[in-house]
Amino acid sequence: MGVMAGSFSNKEVAQILREVAAAYEVKGNSYFQARAYHAAAEVIEQAGTLIKDLWEQGKLQELPGIGGNISQHLDELFRTGKVKHFTQVKKGLPPGMFPLLQIPGLGPKSAYKLAKALNVKSVNDLKKACQQNRVARLEGFGKTSQEKILHSLKSFLTKTPARMLLPVADYTAQKIISFLAPLPSIIRVDPLGSLRRMASTIGDIDLAVASSNPAQIIDKFLKFPDTQEIINQGKVEASLRLSNGTRVDLRVQDAAGYGALLQHYTGSKRHNIHLRELARTKNLSLSEYGIRKGGKRGRLIKFATEEEFYSYLGLDWIPPELREDTGEIEAAQEKKLPQLVKTSDIKGDLHVHCNFDLEESHDAGQSSIEEIAQKGIELGYHYIAIGNHSPSVSRHNQDQIRHLILAKQKEINRVQKKFPQIKLLNMIEVDVLANKTLALDDNNLKLLDIAIAGVHSSLNQPKEQMTERVLAALNNPYIHGLAHPTGRLLNQRKGYELNWDKVFTACIKGDKFLEINSFYNRLDLPDMLIKQAIKAGVKLAINTDAHEINSLNLIKYGVATARRGWAEKKNIINTKNTFP
Ligand SMILES: [Zn+2]
Ligand SMILES: [Zn+2]
């Protein structure tokens, strides 16, 4: 086809990857590949840097979720204009299904059926087919589905873009910060808003700069590469839109008043409203410039740091992750803020996938046991779980599974001898099957150092049934904990519902952990549930669920989510020096 390397926008690359994800999903043989491609598409679409530039700099794998395999395929794409592997994956599928993937709520399988049965080739074709009542007559669709599709088609044109995933927003912000960093007049730069509070998804990117030379800062900021449009250019603030549509706002303040600016624009709105009410009782008024005594016309007091700002109000400094008005202001008044867990507290990762061939139910990791051990040492870990999904139960009996586990143990033992400084744990993420049984029997579970239960199929079971399913797993004496407990995928699906009281009770009774999964589109448990779990006395583990060693670096986002849930070091089991 001869597309020139370099003619790909992030959006185009994302669409290519989405089509591959859809093909995997329709063919139904590769759950993890489908998810990995979908997630990579999301990350690339949201990245504030041109993916092709990253490729030229050899930095593709800097992006979260772009592992070895995908980056190799992208390399082929940029060099030759197409990817042999992608063509192969899409082989046999009607090309008309792919444009339909853009319609919200229309999954790949439906797109496939519509394209195949009705010869639909475009969004417009589908609209016509609906209007001619042809979709309603199609088996498995019916009148309701047809109306739903028509409704989606209407909202399709006015749809709002998805929010950015936290690691992607963080990555983009860091790019801009390092672009500005060489300027001599810069004293400090910080992200603001939901990014500084480390929320799981982010809207716009906001940055604050401490400097006595705002003109110099703004001049440089507006020269950031990949800028599509300058939205606003003022004396102390400016806004631009990146080529991927992300808006970036920058504010400059002199060092003497920087603390108030940082506090004001970090929010959250609710936190600041509560803070203003508190200030009013002391006859003070707050703004991004500082605090005025005796109301709005009083003398302005400036604050170089947030610590001084909060202290003036009689409060301990509140970590940004807590600023959601869920009790942090009261706690700061009483000097009872939690000592939040830090990334440096983490002593091991209990959920990493390796490429040892365990003939798994869904896809294996991409890194070898040896590579994982080395990466663990690099991160200063004392132990690391060498994981796999459970072998597929349709293709293996328990005796065959036993042999696979023992073969893997042999390989772990071999690598362990080479790396005595880190303890390698034989781990399996055990499928909790739709009928409430586990994919491994007790005799096989016993062979493992750690077994984590995970729900990966029949995700739309009703709440009570799903709860029973999870409880059955947690009641097994050989299961240590529950992976990604809600099953949510950010921007993609909400996750299943569980009766959390029952789940918490089972965890406490059986001494099981709930996972805080750091994978960038999971961040699961969500912060609110972390807080509830801690209150109930449930122990937690922060893991990455990495399928290649790069993703082990995502741990800081799991830690950030834990911090948003008020977690302290003592609540997290993998802050201990040994496991268990
Ligand atoms: Zn899983
Ligand atoms: Zn996993």
TrEMBL record:
Q: Does the keyword DNA damage apply?
A: yes
Q: Where is the DNA-directed DNA polymerase X domain?
A: 8-324
GO molecular function terms listed in the Swiss-Prot or TrEMBL record: DNA binding; DNA-directed DNA polymerase activity; phosphoric ester hydrolase activity; zinc ion binding
One annotated GO biological process: DNA repair
A Gene Ontology term for the protein's cellular component: cytosol
Its Enzyme Commission number?
2.7.7.7
- Entry-linked SUPFAM superfamilies: DNA polymerase beta, N-terminal domain-like, Nucleotidyltransferase, PHP domain-like, RuvA domain 2-like
> Which Pfam family would be a valid example here?
DNA_pol_B_thumb
Question: Known CDD domains for this protein?
Answer: NT_POLXc (cd00141), PHP_PolX (cd07436)
Spell out the Gene3D superfamilies in the cross-references: 5' to 3' exonuclease, C-terminal subdomain, Beta Polymerase, domain 2, DNA polymerase beta, N-terminal domain-like, DNA polymerase, thumb domain, Metal-dependent hydrolases
Its domain of life?
Bacteria
Note whether Nucleotidyltransferase occurs among the keywords.
Answer: yes
Task: List the catalysed reactions.
Answer: DNA(n) + a 2'-deoxyribonucleoside 5'-triphosphate = DNA(n+1) + diphosphate
- What keywords does the record list, in alphabetical order? DNA damage, DNA repair, DNA-directed DNA polymerase, Nucleotidyltransferase, Transferase
Extract the InterPro entries matched here.
DNA-dir_DNA_pol_X, DNA_pol_lamdba_lyase_dom_sf, DNA_Pol_thumb_sf, DNA_pol_X_beta-like, HHH_MUS81, NT_sf, PHP_phosphatase, Pol/histidinol_Pase-like
Question: What is this enzyme's class at the first EC digit?
Answer: transferase
Listed name of the protein? DNA-directed DNA polymerase
Q: Which organism is it from?
A: candidate division CPR3 bacterium 4484_211
